[in-house]
Inverse folding.
């Protein structure tokens, strides 16, 4: 035990329910409590310390015992409880103050201590008011008379007087300066003369300025039935899945449930995949719920996050509804009544790196249990996991099969580009079919969305003479050509270099690009449709805080006719005027080496299709593919979720994949290939001795080296009836023995429970 050094907070900033959740995360996802805390707590809560000098009140010195400098500091300490080194430097107006401190210490006059503080600083805004002695009209008249010779000063006083009479609110210095056209210096003079008084008010960094008071919409019959069914199901079960086709109006159903929860005096957590925290949904919810909506996601600064944290902690009126990305499950809720997981099928709810490798949807369900609250999962294309749970009656299941306003589901057509290539009916990556439909939509004043899964210009640059293609020096991948910057870039480690003029293997100038990304599509569109405005939405164009928002707004306001983008486009966006959606190539995602590739392609394609024709006219979707007879594409074109579900579940049964089997993926990393190779063989062998053929691997992943680290994967498949906690105990044992072997100690091991 150590002495208490300093009390930082009057009230704990973390509550017992959070600790309970965090302990669950650490044990379920096999990581440390420290890992969880690092993810949970905003950076600004991390403590810093600074050396301070404190007066020793047990010792009194005579002035004569102290030299000049020492005396000045000693005096100052009688007025201030502590002084920092730089305070002392200011007082003495010199840099090296250590001799002074040393002499004071020698005389026992002071202590040196470490003061600990949070990096979080409340935001203070500067205000001014007229000094109270000018409260009467007469005193004010006299003042203005006195200021006759100083017209600028009297202008400031008059402005302040009229602004505060008009608004009846405190006046910010910045507003006063704007209104009176005065300078900071004039205001300062008035403060120095005690005519004005300055003061500070703590203000939120995140300010909401919108028009609230919009009442929520009247539900149509399908929404009303769904709402009833959800409420009914909540009587017996804590979790319900709302499977409603795109644009069926799920959000409005959520809104009604939120209203009910608020009326009970309880908090609501509304989870969304990161990128979908668009102005669109935020605005919709803020219109209904005004200032009660708090927002929490990764583009917020850590100071802003602390502010939201504190509002939630205080359970105050500014955070009754938290709209957040996955990390918002860590907030200090006290009294949650409802958690909504919108777009619950989204992969981005799972954190890959670093630990905790948690899934926010699954963790949200645990959080809801802790609070004895309900969870509603919503999606037009539910994950197999959730739909399976609903089929097993673990969750309630509610469906909406009609779009709002009885708009028809979009007409989805598969375009065989293999055949079109043969018949030379392609212009670049556009089939004649797609060009025709685009031309028609544009001529009718409609907007178009074009989806391409890859960013950049082309993912592979290849020499036509020798076949060499430039690779990342740190990873086993080809570099992607980005035309806009004329660079070759690695999408795994960020490495970049200027585009080569010659092949680095044979010197030939005949470099060709293979495959295509969003940049190339954007360029082709500009050539095909020079009279229309094109924008691109991918990781490269949305980096800034408002990057994403700007593009969405421009498209919403129809300043842009054609929007080209990656899967960012698919997430819950609601545009009024999009008639046509084009998918340039559906094949690469279908062929992705992952057991979820088919499920995911189905979700992605239906979601992007769902952006078409959301208002009146039926939308049109064209999916270009080399393989129009692929079952997934057939299921997409007929909106056959059940067909997809049954077939994919069959495969998961047969090949022992989730949700039938649980799995833990173990990844070993090291810069020395031999080490990782030998280590992973040892590791897999030890696991096999316990689990037999439930172990797969070790295997090199498709990209065997990233950031100069070689990777090997081992997979454990766990039948539902096998105890997960016993399995994990065994894994931890193997892991500990592995790390105790000297030659493997430097190998990094990543345990990923429920890997995606
Ligand atoms: P989903 O989330 O299921 O894709 P949304 O909630 O975005 O669907 O609804 C689609 C569109 O229909 C939105 O523009 C929404 O404002 C509108 N809408 C949905 N329900 C209603 C309603 N009851 N009254 C009026 N408009 C509605
Ligand atoms: Zn070459
Ligand atoms: Zn790289």
């Amino acid at each position: 035990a150590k002495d208490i050094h300093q009390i930082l907070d009057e009230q704990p900033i973390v509550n017992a329910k959070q600790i309970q959740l965090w302990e669950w995360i650490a044990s379920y996802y096999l990581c440390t409590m420290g890992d969880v805390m690092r993810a949970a707590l905003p950076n600004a809560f991390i403590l810093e310390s600074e050396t301070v000098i404190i007066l020793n009140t047990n010792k009194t010195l005579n002035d004569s015992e102290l030299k000049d400098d020492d005396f000045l500091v000693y005096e100052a300490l009688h007025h201030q409880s502590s002084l920092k080194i730089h305070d002392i430097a200011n007082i003495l107006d010199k840099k090296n103050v250590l001799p002074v401190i040393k002499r004071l210490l020698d005389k026992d006059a002071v202590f040196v201590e470490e003061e600990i503080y949070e990096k979080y600083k409340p935001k203070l805004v500067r205000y001014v008011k007229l000094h109270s002695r000018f409260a009467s009209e007469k005193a004010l008249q006299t003042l203005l008379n006195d200021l006759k010779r100083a017209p600028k000063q009297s202008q400031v006083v008059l402005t302040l007087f009229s602004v505060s009479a008009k608004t009846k609110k405190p006046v910010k210095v910045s507003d006063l300066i704007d209104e009176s056209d005065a300078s900071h210096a004039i205001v300062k003079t008035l403060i120095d003369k005690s005519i004005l008084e300055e003061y500070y008010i703590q203000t939120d960094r995140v300010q909401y300025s919108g028009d609230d008071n919009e009442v929520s919409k009247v539900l149509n019959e399908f929404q009303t039935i769904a709402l009833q069914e959800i409420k009914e199901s909540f009587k017996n079960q804590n979790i319900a899945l709302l499977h409603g086709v795109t644009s069926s109006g799920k959000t409005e159903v959520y809104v009604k449930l939120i209203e009910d929860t608020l009326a009970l005096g309880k908090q609501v957590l509304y989870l969304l995949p990161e990128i979908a925290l668009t102005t669109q949904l935020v605005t919709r919810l803020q219109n209904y719920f005004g200032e009660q909506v708090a927002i929490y996601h990764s583009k917020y600064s850590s100071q802003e996050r602390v502010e939201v944290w504190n509002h939630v902690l205080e359970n105050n009126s500014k955070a009754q509804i938290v709209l957040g990305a996955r990390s918002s499950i860590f907030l200090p809720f006290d009294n949650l009544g409802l958690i909504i997981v919108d777009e619950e099928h989204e992969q981005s709810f799972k954190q890959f790196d670093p630990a905790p490798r948690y899934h926010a949807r699954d963790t949200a369900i645990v959080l809801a249990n802790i609070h004895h609250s309900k969870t509603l999962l919503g999606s037009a294309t539910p994950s197999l996991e959730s739909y399976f749970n609903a089929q097993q009656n673990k969750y309630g299941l509610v469906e909406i099969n009609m779009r709002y306003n009885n708009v028809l589901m979009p007409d989805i057509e598969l375009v065989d580009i293999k055949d079109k290539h043969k018949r030379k009916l392609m212009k670049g990556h556009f089939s004649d079919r797609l060009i025709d439909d685009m031309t028609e939509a544009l001529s009718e004043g409609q907007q178009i969305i074009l989806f391409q899964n890859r960013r950049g210009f082309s993912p592979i640059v290849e020499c036509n003479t020798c076949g060499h293609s430039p690779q990342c020096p740190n990873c086993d991948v080809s570099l992607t050509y980005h035309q806009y910057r004329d660079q070759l870039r690695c999408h795994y480690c960020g490495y970049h270099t200027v585009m080569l003029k010659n092949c680095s293997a044979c010197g030939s100038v005949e470099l060709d690009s293979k495959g295509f990304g969003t940049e190339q599509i954007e360029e082709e569109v500009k050539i095909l449709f020079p009279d229309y405005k094109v924008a691109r939405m991918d990781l490269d164009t949305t980096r800034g805080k408002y990057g994403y928002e700007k593009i969405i707004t421009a498209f919403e306001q129809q300043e842009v006719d054609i929007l080209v983008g990656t899967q960012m486009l698919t997430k819950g966006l609601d545009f009024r005027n999009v008639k046509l959606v084009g998918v340039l190539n559906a094949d690469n995602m279908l062929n992705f080496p992952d057991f979820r590739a088919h499920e995911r392609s189905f979700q992605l394609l239906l979601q992007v299709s769902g952006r078409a024709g959301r208002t009146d006219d039926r939308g049109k979707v064209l999916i270009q593919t080399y393989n129009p007879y692929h079952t997934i594409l057939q299921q997409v074109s007929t909106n056959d979720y059940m067909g997809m579900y049954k077939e994919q579940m069959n495969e998961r049964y047969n090949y022992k994949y989730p949700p039938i089997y649980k799995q833990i993926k173990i990844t070993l990393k090291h810069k020395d290939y031999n080490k990782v190779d030998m280590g992973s063989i040892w590791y897999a062998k030890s696991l096999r001795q316990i689990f037999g053929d439930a172990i797969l691997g070790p295997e090199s992943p498709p990209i065997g080296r990233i950031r100069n680290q070689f990777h090997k994967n081992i997979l454990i498949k766990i039948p539902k009836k096998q105890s997960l906690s016993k399995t994990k105990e065994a894994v931890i044992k193997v892991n500990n023995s592995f790390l105790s072997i000297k030659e493997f100690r430097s190998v990094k091991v990543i345990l990923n429970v429920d890997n995606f």
